[in-house]
Write a structure and sequence with these properties.
With 275 residues, this protein is α+β, with helices and mostly antiparallel strands. It folds into two domains: 52 residues, no CATH class; 217 residues, DD-peptidase/beta-lactamase superfamily (Beta-lactamase). It is built from ten helices and eleven strands. A three-stranded antiparallel β-sheet has the order 5-9-6. Strand 7 and strand 8 form a beta hairpin. Helix 2 packs parallel to helix 7 and helix 2 packs across helix 8. The chain is globular, with a radius of gyration of 20 Å. The two termini are 36 Å apart. The mean pLDDT is 94.
């Protein structure tokens, strides 16, 4: 075991330094974490090292949790994946072809990425838009990139809208719904949708990016628009999420829930696409 972990540690040597950001990892074998460790620093200003308990913003990896919330709502007969988008968010205009929740989840809606639209509008990407303003921004699209279901193009817009649909259909914020339906049942005590960028998070690892002149600068996210991102979690909590894919306990649905959530989508021509 020592020889194996030494090899793993060597892979991260270049980041395992007191002047570098880094990462945390966990190695799973036979349903258990057999090795976990942090490399580099969680905070370069106060010399705080990364540990397996460090809480990370996992960015777009958050989308899988939004998708699970939608599928759970479908299982509760509160919506269907074939519902048209406008059934739940009527502010979005009707286009020449219908957009369904399935299109949103599989990146086949044709809606432009709202982050790109924000950039083109001159936004800094910080918390300068309310949810309602983002929906208005999306609704101002006069046309789609392509006919829904005919192509696949990665778009944060779909998952931002799915997060809003969770809120409108359940009557609870995405953060609360995910906590009740996913995180609490699985024992993911250090995981949440971070829907208030001002909130203090214990053991949070700061984000950094290289500076052109050398060294690093902070690269934290300062926004509240959850759905497409902003899940905060740890290596240990992600292990609990991973374990549930083999023995599902969510909603009392058994493995058929996992089969549904992991089944690839299809384009209109029958081609398979990972959602």
């Amino acid at each position: 075991m020592t020889l194996i972990t030494d090899k793993v540690d060597r892979l991260f040597t270049q980041w395992d330094k007191p002047d570098s950001p880094g990462c945390a990892l966990g190695i799973i074998q036979n349903g258990e974490i057999i090795y976990k460790r942090g490399y580099g620093m969680a905070n370069l200003e106060y010399d705080i090292p990364i540990t397996p308990n460090s809480v990370f913003d996992i960015a777009s990896n958050s989308k899988q949790f939004t998708a699970m919330c939608i599928v759970l709502l479908a299982r509760q007969n509160l919506l269907t994946l074939d519902d048209e988008l406008q059934k739940h968010i009527p502010e979005i205009p009707q286009y020449s072809h219908p957009i369904t929740l399935r299109h949103l989840s599989c990146h086949t809606s044709g809606l432009r990425d709202y982050l790109d639209v924000m950039e083109m509008s001159g936004s800094s990407g910080e918390n300068s838009y309310l949810t309602e303003e983002l929906i208005t921004l999306i609704a101002h699209q006069k046309s789609l990139n392509f006919q829904p279901g005919t192509e696949q193009k990665y778009s944060n817009t779909g998952y931002f809208l799915l997060g809003e649909i969770v809120k409108r259909v359940s009557g609870k914020s995405l953060r609360v719904f995910a906590e009740e339906q996913i995180f609490a049942p699985l024992g993911m005590k250090n995981t949440h949708f971070h829907d208030d960028f001002r909130e203090i998070v214990k053991n949070r690892a700061d984000a950094y990016e290289p500076r052109e002149t050398g060294g690093f600068q902070t690269a934290m996210s300062w926004a509240d628009d959850v759905g497409a991102g902003f899940v905060y979690t740890t290596v240990e909590d992600l292990f609990l999420w991973d374990r549930n894919f083999y023995h599902n306990i969510l909603g009392g649905y058994g493995q058929d829930l996992i089969e549904e959530i992991t089944t690839p989508g299809k384009l209109d021509n029958g081609e398979t696409r990972r959602c």
